[in-house]
Amino acid sequence: MDRTRKTLIVLVIALIPATAGFSGDHSKPIPDPMVGTWSLEGRSACKERDADRVVFRQDGTFQNQRRGRVEALGYWELEDDQLHLHALTSPAFLDDRLAHFAGSFHYLKIRGLITEGSSRELRVVASYGDQMEELEFHRCSTKD
Q1: How many structural domains does the chain have?
Q2: What's the predicted TM-score (pTM) here?
């Protein structure tokens, strides 16, 4: 899987409703199952500084980290087996061929269907734009 897909996958798990269309009520804490740090590169990557990771916070916000820096921010919500992500990111982070977009940020809506899940791993079929991907998330321990 290339970095573009991994980053988009990370965004699937990491949302931000930039300007409009987000109706989530974040005055109530989000259920615990998603809260925490998740790796998109396998459990062993949790300790690697440059690995793709998504941090889901209890207040409904997230951040996607890759190459040791934050590449996307947003809001997320979980409804049954559906994960909704609203992300703000730069196309330059998605693919090196899009480097000319550096400094330009855009809204990206990602929808994910959790097809398999446990407290340690998730399989998610994610759609964004006209793309569809299957992603694997691995929960990082607090020791990582």
Answers
A1: 1
A2: 0.72
Distance between CA 64 and CA 119 in Å, rounded? 20
The per-residue pLDDT for 96 is: 73
Q: Does any domain span residue 144?
A: no
State the CB neighbour count (10 A cutoff) for residue 143. Answer: 6
Q: Among all chains, which residue has been given the structure tokens 């087996």?
A: 81
User: Is pLDDT of 34 > 80?
Assistant: yes
What is the number of alpha carbons within 13 Å of residue 97 lying toward its C-beta? 3
Residues 6+ apart with CB under 8 A from 138: 38, 39, 40, 42, 43, 45, 46, 120, 121
Partners of 56 in beta bridges = 36, 62
Domain for residue 47, yes or no?
A: yes
Domain that holds residue 29: 3-139
Distances in Å between the Cα of 141 and the Cα atoms of 36, 41, 144 are 8, 14, 5
The alpha carbon dihedral of 61, 143, 140, 69 has a sign of positive
Q: Is 95 within a domain?
A: yes
